[in-house]
Description:
Elements: E1 6-12, E2 20-26, E3 29-35, E4 43-47, E5 62-66, E6 69-73, E7 80-82, E8 98-99, E9 101-104, E10 107-112, H1 115-121
Antiparallel strand pairs: 1-10, 2-3, 3-4, 4-8, 5-6, 6-7, 9-10
The structure holds FE2/S2 (inorganic) cluster.
Domain Rieske-like [2Fe-2S]: 6-111
Organism: Marinobacter panjinensis
InterPro entries: NirD, Rieske-like_NirD, Rieske_2Fe-2S_sf
Amino acid sequence: MKARTSWDVVCTVEDLVPESGVAVWTEDGPVAVFYLPHRLPALFAVSHTDPFTGKNVLARGITGDLKGQPVVASPLYKQHFNLQTGRCLEDEDVAVKTYPVLLDGNNVRVEIPAVNKESAAA
Ligand code: FES
């Protein structure tokens, strides 16, 4: 059994939109990559799927700052999700999945857990 993750290239720097998100498709499902140029680190990756509706919309949400936390507001019912922890600010029982993300030259890489690939293959 291999318990490995992979750092998949999901897009390039040119694809990123300042203060906004882009949706990318990974083996772990759709992921929203956010680029907040005034922050350090400036990149965040969370599931693109809104947990309240199951719709793939979070990359289109408005980003902002709430109490010092970087957040995205779901375009549907406007819940805010912390981009670092995935936690919903209005409902602490709800969170979106977060992913480590980094810049590798011109490539944006997201760390995808290998677990899903294996269970899908089994
Ligand atoms: S990161 Fe630029 S205003 Fe929030």
